[in-house]
Amino acid sequence: MPTIVPPYLLDRIAESADPRFPLAAEAARRALLRLPPARLPLIVPDAPDQPSALPDAPSQPDRRISDAEGRETLPGRLVRREGERATGDEAVDDAYDGLGDTHRLFDRVFGRDSIDGAGMPLEATVHFGRAYDNAFWDGERMVFGDGDGEIFTGFTDSLSVIGHELAHGVTEHTARLRYQGQSGALNEHVSDAFGALVEQYALGQDATAATWLIGEGIFTDAVQGRALRSMLEPGTAYDDDVLGRDPQPAHMRDYIETREDNGGVHLNSGIPNRAFALAARQIDGFAWESVGRIWYDTLTSGRLGENATFEQFAAETLRQAELRFGPDSLELRAVREGWQEVGVAVEGAQG
């Protein structure tokens, strides 16, 4: 069960005795109880092959938003379906809009009809639990907590969070990267990359104007931090008395070996995140037209193993960059230099 807030951050909050946040510690402890067991990978069933592009079948989203009404029972009460008017509930309407923005990117840019490539309904549940400090993809739907109000606001407040979690569904239906170790960090990285692209596409931002922040807007003003993660500058997203300092590494020399967090999947994802953002900024222009296409081609190539390493993933991105843009392209050079900058060994595109 991939979650947007990593367990190490919830641990910090749960252990805090800061009098400014009387509710946050208990809320974090409850959120930790909803995490999957440590060291167990996310195993998903085999999915049938799906087309990666449906140019002759323009798609329309099929969105369904439910309200858990503070309980932890899914899916909750259905409150808004596709085409219905806004409800006035900010969480419901933000989730509805965010699902639409995510669908639009995958449809218009990559020709993908929903998460599974075959028109799968996009479902979400809001107001999950009591002051629940997380959002997650459970294999069928997006689930959003409202936050504790002291450290976290509602998790529908960030479009990159919505895009991130839905991208886990795309990964399940394509490369099926195992949620453990380096393949798990790649799973998290892919979701961060497409979460950022969803936000950039919705805002019309090019790679230079983009913030490259994941989860911007989900911290309250009491927190000294910009977001959960920075793709461009891993390790700099927050530096707070309660949360501590963002621990993400930005280079392979600082790769974190740990048994926690499914082998550090939320930590070490900072390394490929930086490679992606650096490549996008070197190319400039709209990132979804360059590195976004390369990464999507990589994800749907059928050439990645479920236990892919950073080096294997990087090699496939180089191959796909050469196939799409050519051997002498700026795109290929930028992707290669991005991986080299973060210490991932690459030897060029492989035929």
Q: What attributes does this structure have?
A:
two-stranded antiparallel ribbon, 5-stranded mixed sheet, alpha/beta, about 350 residues, EC 3.4.24.-, protease, hydrolase, Neutral Protease, domain 2
Task: Provide a descriptive summary of the structure in words.
It is a single chain. This protein is of the alpha/beta class and 351 residues long. It has a single domain (7-40, 61-341), classed as Orthogonal Bundle (Neutral Protease, domain 2). Helix content is 38%, strand content 8%. It is built from ten helices and nine strands. It has helices at 7-14, 24-33, 90-108, 159-172, 181-203, 261-268, 270-283, 291-299, 310-325, 330-341; strands spanning 63-67, 77-81, 122-126, 135-137, 142-144, 213-214, 229-230, 239-240, 244-245. It has a five-stranded mixed β-sheet, covered by helices on one side. A two-stranded antiparallel sheet has the order 6-7. Strands 8-9 form a two-stranded antiparallel ribbon. Strand 8 (239-240) and strand 9 (244-245) form a beta hairpin. Helix 4 crosses helix 5 (181-203), helix 5 (181-203) packs parallel to helix 7 (270-283) and helix 8 (291-299) crosses helix 9 (310-325). 55% of the residues are buried.
